[in-house]
Amino acid sequence: MSSISIIGTGNMARTIGARAIAGGNTVEIMGRDQSKAADLAKALGGGATTGEWGTAPAGGIVIVALLYAGVVRAGQGTCGGVHREPRLRPLDVGGLKMAHWLEGAGVVTVGLANHGVSNPDFALGITELPV
Ligand SMILES: NC(=O)c1ccc[n+]([C@@H]2O[C@H](COP(=O)([O-])OP(=O)(O)OC[C@H]3O[C@@H](n4cnc5c(N)ncnc54)[C@H](OP(=O)(O)O)[C@@H]3O)[C@@H](O)[C@H]2O)c1
């Protein structure tokens, strides 16, 4: 069982949160609108809690389920909390068109962690070059 913080209160937060609860994990929901976070935590059930926006997430795993504009506003709100969390090293890898490359990079990263470098303490970076 893992402790998972989900930052966001929208479709993805609800879907991932439901899967996480079904898997027997503890879930913390954080949103800039505290009432939406509370509503989602209540709807998820399973002991889901809310965290305070602007503080570091409590979970050992942190899932950011915000619109891109919300993520890149580093230094504000909970994103500031994430950036202050010493275990995390967020990278700005470009706009939404980079998403499909990053999904593949994520699979490669998990594969390398399990079968290559044998630890999760690394990251793959992608640089979007101007054309
Ligand atoms: N839905 C899908 O099928 C899907 C699939 C793959 C990837 N994604 C990606 O997952 C992310 C979330 O998608 P979603 O469908 O969950 O979106 P959503 O339902 O619109 O939820 C967006 C969340 O982001 C928050 N947010 C928006 N702008 C913000 C800002 N400037 N600062 C802080 N928070 C902000 C919203 O808070 P408020 O409610 O307070 O506005 C809400 O909690 C997006 O990047 C999307 O591209 C979605």
The biggest sheet amounts to: 4 strands, parallel
According to CATH, the homologous superfamily of the largest domain is: NAD(P)-binding Rossmann-like Domain
Structural class: alpha/beta
Beta-strand content = 5-15%
- How would you state the average pLDDT, rounded? 82
Number of strands: 4
**CATH class identity of the largest domain:** Alpha Beta
Give the distance, in angstroms, between the N- and C-terminal Cα atoms: 45 Å
Task: Describe the structure in brief.
With 131 residues, this protein is α/β, with parallel strands linked by helices. 40% of the residues lie in helices and 12% in strands.
Description:
The chain has two domains: 3-84, NAD(P)-binding Rossmann-like Domain (Rossmann fold), CATH 3.40.50; 91-131, no CATH class. It is globular and about 45 Å long. It contains five helices and four strands, in the order E-H-E-H-E-E-H-H-H. It has helices at 11-22, 34-44, 68-71, 77-84, 99-115; strands at 3-7, 26-30, 49-50, 61-64. Helix 1 links the parallel strand 1 (3-7) and strand 2 (26-30). Strands 3-2-1-4 form a four-stranded parallel beta sheet, with helices on one face. The chain starts with a strand and ends in a 16-residue tail after the last helix. The structure holds NADP nicotinamide-adenine-dinucleotide phosphate.
